[in-house]
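Our preliminary data section would be incomplete without showing what the modeling component actually yields. Below, a chain of 183 amino acids is followed by its predicted structure, encoded as tokens that our downstream tools consume directly.
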Amino acid sequence: MTPDLHASATSVLAGWTPRSPEQAALRDRFLTHLAAHPDGLAKACFPDHLTAGAIVVSPRADAVLLNHHRKADAWLAFGGHLEPGDASLVDGARRELVEESGLSAFELDPEPLSLDAHAVEFCSDRGTVHHLDVRFVAVAEPDGSHATSEESLDVRWWRVDDLPDTFDDMYVLVDAAVARVRG
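Predicted structure:
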């Protein structure tokens, strides 16, 4: 990862105003991680590294686009590891969203929506990794222009009042995205 990406991520997180004490604690954890690890955005940084992603919501905030992640075997938002060509966290989230969803037409809010830290067993052969995930919200029309990637078993729009079984943090993320889009 470039020093510019590291500086950009640090600046974005330091300037972000969390909406809860839990989110503030995560922001502080992410910033502490970045201060201690010049490589803290790289997949090779063990056992923790930053990742970026996006939850996609319809303009009326009544539906979300999720992917049935192949390795996790769960319905999730889009996202993943940052790459050397990513200029910022939001650029990494945009790239991951395009790669995993096939969407080409969407509006991506550059302000982080939320942060999440979660253990991942299949990320490294060295053991459990913690993804320090910076999540953004994108708005797109549910017009069928999405596609399933190699990382997914399925990509599908879900009504927000009829979501599939998934992790609790995904329901929290959907609620936050819907609230942001509804303004």
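The mean pLDDT is 92. The two ends are 35 Å apart (CA to CA). Preliminary results of this kind motivate Aim 1 of the renewal.
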